[in-house]
Predict the structure.
Amino acid sequence: MARTHKGLQWVRTSEAIRSFVTEHGRSAPRRAILCTYNFEAETFERFLFPELTRRGRQFSTLVLADGAALQGELSRTGQRRFDRYEIGPVRCGGGGVFHPKLVFLAAGRRHMVGIGSANLTSGGLRANLELMMFADDTTECGRQLVGGAACFLSRLIKKESIHLPASAREFIETALAGVKVDRHGLIDSLDESLLSQMVSLVLGKRGSNDRFSREVIILSPWHSALRSPEGLDPAIIRQMSGAFGGSLSIYTEGQKGCGPDLGVPVYIRGERPRKAAVDNEDSDNPHEEDVFDRRPYRVHAKAYLITSPRQGGTLFFGSANCTLPALNRTPDGGGNVEILGASRLGDAEISAFKGDLNDLFVLTQKTFGAKAPIRPETAKGIILCGRLTGGRNGVRLHIEAPNVERGSVQVGPKPDRFTVTVKIRHGWGLVSKPIEIHDLFPDVLPKRSDSSWGSVLWERSGREGIPFPVSIPLLGVGTDSPDGFLLDLASEEMGFWPAETTNGGAGAQVDDQSQDEEERDDLDALTEAQHEGELDRIAVRMSILRKRIMRSAGGPEYARSRMALLRRQIAGMDIAPHLRDVLLEYSHQRSPYTERPAR
Amino acid sequence: MLKGLLPAWVEADPLRSRATDPLGLQNVADRLADRLLPGLSVLTTRARYFSFFCWARGETGPGHNEHQIHRCEVALALTEKSLSDADPEHAESCRFVGSRNIKFFEQGQVPADPRRVYKMPAWRAYRPSLSAVGLVDSASDFSLTEAGAALSNAFRRAVRPRWEPARPFPAAACLSCSSHDEKRQLRDVLGLSIGGPLDADSADPRVRRSVFVREMRKTHRNDGLSPEVVLPGYEGLRSPNLPEPARTLRVAAVWERLSFGLNAVFVSWLRAVDAGTCRSFERTLAELLTGRLPQPTLEPTELSAQNQVPALARAVSSLRHAIRLHDQLDECHTMLKDEDAFELARSLVSSRQAPRVRVAKTINDLRSRHLAAKGDEAWVRECPDGELELARDGGETWKMPSVVRPHAYRMAAFHQIAFDLGGL
C-alpha cells in the first residue's frame, strides 16, 4: 500500500505487483521477467511469486540473477527445489557482475515495469532502505519506462559478451514481442558508461558554463572493503566531482555513528536497535508499529541528484552504486550491467526528495578511513545451467556451457558426489540415458506437471563442487516431441500451467480456470486431443496455438512478432524434417477464421 | 527522460513475525498446523471478529475498501477501550486488536486516518480466514457469501450499529458479547458443532477442524490448548495406523522436540558470540554430549547466562529424543519433508566423531541454515578480520531472544475462539 510521506511515497513491491495483476492480469499471455543481482528463492517464493500465481492468473516467470551470486546462494542453501518458474544465471564475460534490478510484467497488451535498487532478497523486499519506481503503460511516463526496459532487455540478449541461458533469451524475445522500444526511457551500461550518459543528459552534448554552481547529491550504500558490488568508491567520487563540478554531498550507511572519510560532507542513516524474537505468539505483535511500519536502516538505495539553481535538477536512480565498475565502465571493459532511470525534476520534487533525505539521514562529523570495495568473485566452473525437456524417449538434460568448444565435465546430485560425465560440444552437453537421469535426480525429477520446475546439480571443478540451477524451460524449447512442445506453447500463450499431477505427468491437463467460453472450448479441445493419434494431436495444438496468438490481447503487432518467432522456434526444433515442414507450412497458412487479429 | 516523476521508498513486506524464525523451522510447523486447523491462523483469536468483519465488509459497499473497514475496527477498539476503562476486569479478559496503541489515543472519535491509532488493520489478518471458512469470496473483492451475509445480519440484529464513521459502537458490539445466533452460525462454519460420524482423512477443512475438536474433547476438555500440553501425550503412541488428527499430532511432537533442540542450541550460541564466551559454550555442549540426560518437557525455556547449562542439557536431550522418534516413525519422512534438519541433529547427538568436532560442525551447519533462512537479515555476521559479531544496528538496547518456545500450531488461538463460542 503506497502511503504519502512528507516527500516520496512508500510502496511495497508485492502490492505494486498485486495491483497490476488485479487490474490487468485477466488478459493472456501473462509473462514476467525479473532481474536481480542476489536471489533468495525462499523469500521470492514466499513474498512475490504468490502474487504472480493468484486466481489462476499464472505468469510464466523468468528470474535472471548474477551467476556468481547465485552460485554463492545455492552453495549456502544446498539442495533445494524451486517453484514453477525458471532461473537464468547471467555471467558477464568482462568480469563485471549482472546488477540490474528490474521487474517487467506483461499481461495481454498491458505492461508494467519496476526499476530501482531492490534485489529479490529478504533485504530488498523487507529490510533495506531501497528506492523503486513502478509504472504501467497506461501513462506516458509508464510507456517510456516500459519502452526503456524493453530496449534494455532486447539489447541484453543480443550482447555476445553476456552469457545467459538460450531458453531465457527465447523467453525474453517472446515477452517483448510487440512492445515498442524506447531508447530514451532508461539508461544502461551495455554500450556506454553510465557516467558519460549522465553527463550528456545533465550538461547537454556541449557541456554547460554554470557547472560550478551545481549541487550533486549521492545516495549509495557504504560497504567498507568487503567483497561486494555495493559501495562507495572515493575514485569515482572525484570523477563525478570533476564531471559535474559544484558542491557534493554523500548520503550513506554509517558504522557505529561514523561515516567514511571521503573529503566531502557525509550524512549517515541514524541508527536504531533491531528487535528479534523467537516465535512470539502474541496476537498484537503484527500490529505493532515498530514491527510493520519501521523505516529501514540498512541503506541500499542508489540515487544521484544533480541540481542547478536556475534549471531544476535531474535525478538518476536504479541499480548503480557509486563505484567505478558500475558508473564508469561497460560490461565489455570489466564493468557491471546496470540500469538507471532518469527523471527531470522541478523545485517541488527536489525539495520533497531532499526533505526525505534530511528526515532519514544525519550529518556526521566522526569519520573512519575510506576503502574502495573489493571486487566480488566471478562465477566458477564451466556450466551456466541445465534444462530438462521431455522427449519421445523420456526426459533429457541439456547442459549449457557457453565457453567450452570441446570437453567433458562431471556432474552429480550432491557437492561431493559426481555420477555422470557429460561431453560438451560447441557449448552444449546432453544427458539422455534414463539411468543417468535417475542418478542425477534420485529423489524427485522436476516436471512441468509437478509443483517444482527447478532443482540444483553440481559440477566438479578441481576438488570442489560448483552448483548450477536446472530448470524446465518456460517455452518448452529443446524437446524432440512436437506435440508436447505445442501443448506447452499453447497453454503458455493462454496463461495456464499444466495441472499438477501425481502420476508422473501422464495425462497432464491444463488448469481449467478460464472464465472465457472460447478459452474453455480450446482447453477442452487440447485435453480431448490427448486421446488422438500424434498427427491429429499436432494439428489440434498447432491450430489452437495459432488462433490464440492471432487473437491475443497483445494486439496485431504482438501477433505478427510472435508468429515470426514461432516459425523460428519450429525451424530450430530437433524433430523429423517432414514434420517440421508440415508445421512450418501450417504456420504460414492464412485462414479468415483463425487469423483475425484482435483489435 | 521522465518528467517530474519520483521513485518511492520500499516499504517492508509483512509477515515479519514469521521471519523471526532463525532456522527456517516454522514452515514445517505451518504445514502441520494446516492439517490440524486449516483456514485459521495464530492471529485469528477472537470469534466475534468474524461476524464483525462480515458486517463491516457488507457496510462498505461493493468494492473492497480497506480504509473504511479499518475505520470500523478503530470504532470497535474505542468501544472496547471505554468498556475497559469502566471495568478493569474487562480489560483483562477481553483482548482486542490495537489495545496497546489505543491507550495513548486521547480522542473519543475515530480519526479520518485510522492509522493514527494503529497502522495495520486486523482485517488483513482475518481476511484469509474469512475466505477460507467461506464467509467472503476472495475472487471477487472479498464480497460476502451467503453464509457471510447471514452472519453479518446476525451481528446487525445483535448490535444495531449505526453507520457513523466517526463514532464508537454501542457496548453490545463488545467482542465478548456474541449473540446466540452469531455463536450458532460461527460454530457451524468453524466445525465446532458438526454431528454424526466423520471421515478422519477428509480433505474438507471444516471436517478437519471438527475432527480436531472431537479429539481435543476426549483429552483436553478442561485444559487450555497449547502444544506443550497437547503434544507430549501423542509422542508415546506407537500404532502404525493412527487415525487423524492423532497421526499429525504425533509427528508435530517429533518436530517440536527437534525444533526446540536446534533453536535452543543456536540461540545459546548467539548469546555466547555476544558475550565472547564461544569456547566455553562449545566445551559445555561437548561435555553434555557425553552424558546421560533425563527426558525433557516441552515447556518454554529461558536462555539466560545462569540457565545456560540446564537449557543446553534440555536441548541435547530433546534432539536425542527427536532422532529416536523420527527413526521409529515412517510418516516423519513423508509429512515433515525436512530431512536436513534431522541430519543436522543426528550429526550432533549420534555421530561417532569426537564431541568437540561434532559441536564445531553443528555450529557451522546451523550458521549456514540460518543464513539460508534469513539472507540479508542474518542475526550474525563476519567482520572483515574473520571475527563473528551480532548484526545489530545499534549497540545498547538490541534484544537477544531470551526464551525458546514450541511453535503455536494455532492451538491457543483456536481455544480462545472456542471459548468465545461457548467452549469445545
Summary: Chain B has 18 helices and eight strands. The two ends of chain B are 64 Å apart (CA to CA). The longest helix of chain B spans residues 246-275.
